[in-house]
Amino acid sequence: MLLKEVNYQIQGVELAEIAKEFGSPVYVYDAEKILSQFQRLKNAFSGVNLKIKYAAKALTNQAILKLLNKAGSGIDVVSLQELELGLLAGFEAKDIMFTPNCVAYEEIQAGVKKGVTINLDNLPFLEKFGKEYGSSVPCCIRINPHIDAGGNVKIMTGHKESKFGISIEQFPEILNIVSKYNIDIIGLHIHSGSDFKSADAFVKAADILFDLSNNFKNLRFLDFGSGFKVAYKEGDYTTDIAELGEKMSSSFQQFCKKYGRDLELWFEPGKFLVSESGYLLVQTNVVKETPDLTFVGVNSGLNHLIRPMMYGAYHSIVNISNPSGVEKPYNVVGYICETDTFGSGLVMNEVREGDILAIKNAGAYGFSMSSNYNSRFRPAEVLVYKGKAHLIRKRETMEDLLRNQVNLEL
Ligand SMILES: *Cc1c(COP(=O)(O)O)cnc(C)c1O
């Protein structure tokens, strides 16, 4: 009983109270959780110069960016707009890594003007970059290491057919271009998706980067991207951060010794920092019994949280309005006129019309992937910071839906 109640509050603030005060649907984030994840990652690495570059695309609210900036994080951005949001939140250009994929070359030029670190991920742009800037603007190269890693590791962006990074098989061409224009390579980067499970898989990927590093004399950092796995349900395998820190720290130290200089070790976690901090609170519109199933229809849908429909992601859901109700299986569905399922066969305390449900692990790729589909307003966002709930984004209104529409007299 007690345990359950603890789940339904953040820093002593009742989730139910937040829904009452700010309405629903509403995204709620726990600042303490974000900071503790940040600290956990920092603490796991010792004897190396670790830099954390939060992957801003996971959740870009200014309050979250400011929180992480204050904690000492840098950021990784994938668009000029995220770059601007980062600068507005107080990040200095030197702490921003720009890792675009298939953007126009003009965006890269604009990034250079802003003074951020550019991460190049294709040969034509490396060539253009060299031609234009020569050795005057340092940059990083994103390598696709083609880790299909046997069996248990499913990798989403580091495999051979992926559109990300420059293939390791094209490494000789990288070297040709770099020497032709004398490009100042200060970093190498790999990001192998979000499905790395074991610390050993990371270390294996790191070894590949260590090998390549010996071809560049001016390196300042190696960036191992992200891929930390977080638990979405009980029993899910997660990356053992302590083990990862221990193994990576020691192999990185050895590498630096051989390389002859202490480099920075970078990671770009998104999910790891913000996923578990977030809850999407929704209200039950209807409980609909069919001969086989019980549907709980809520006042939200794939327009607000697309992960279940887009990736088949599992999110656990709890009924915070009836914590002692009898447990029953439910299919929780949204109000969008498409197949719109948040979860099937979920066991929850009995759900009644009007009950507030909390969809967990909604901090990463929740609001940032939300839309106005079905002409619905996007939810409000609330950050619980120092024991108090703060509104950090207002719920949209009709004005927002019409803002950029141009009236045509017909
Ligand atoms: C999306 C992304 C990340 C973050 O991935 P998570 O799985 O959320 O940790 C890191 N680096 C790059 C380049 C990305 O595109």
UniProtKB/TrEMBL annotation:
Residues annotated with N6-(pyridoxal phosphate)lysine modification: 57
Active site per database record: 337
Domain Orn/DAP/Arg decarboxylase 2 N-terminal span(s) in chain numbering: 32-275
The keyword Phosphoprotein is annotated on this UniProt entry: no
Ranges where the Orn/DAP/Arg decarboxylase 2 C-terminal domain occurs: 27-363
The keyword Cell wall biogenesis/degradation is assigned to this record: no
GO process terms (BP): lysine biosynthetic process via diaminopimelate
Top enzyme category: lyase
UniProt-listed Enzyme Commission number(s): 4.1.1.20
Pfam family, one: Orn_DAP_Arg_deC
Keywords: Amino-acid biosynthesis, Decarboxylase, Lyase, Lysine biosynthesis, Pyridoxal phosphate
The protein's annotated pathway: Amino-acid biosynthesis; L-lysine biosynthesis via DAP pathway; L-lysine from DL-2,6-diaminopimelate: step 1/1
Binding site residues for substrate: 307, 311, 338, 365
InterPro entries: Ala_racemase/Decarboxylase_C (IPR009006), DAP_deCOOHase_LysA (IPR002986), De-COase2_C (IPR022643), De-COase2_N (IPR022644), De-COase2_pyr-phos_BS (IPR022653), Orn/DAP/Arg_de-COase (IPR000183), PLP-binding_barrel (IPR029066)
The protein's required cofactors: pyridoxal 5'-phosphate
Subunit structure: Homodimer.
Family annotation (PANTHER family): DIAMINOPIMELATE DECARBOXYLASE, GROUP IV DECARBOXYLASE
UniProt cross-references to NCBIfam families, sorted A to Z: lysA
Function per UniProt: Specifically catalyzes the decarboxylation of meso-diaminopimelate (meso-DAP) to L-lysine.
HAMAP family, alphabetized: LysA (MF_02120)
Name this protein carries in UniProt: Diaminopimelate decarboxylase
Record organism: Sporocytophaga myxococcoides
Chain's gene name: lysA
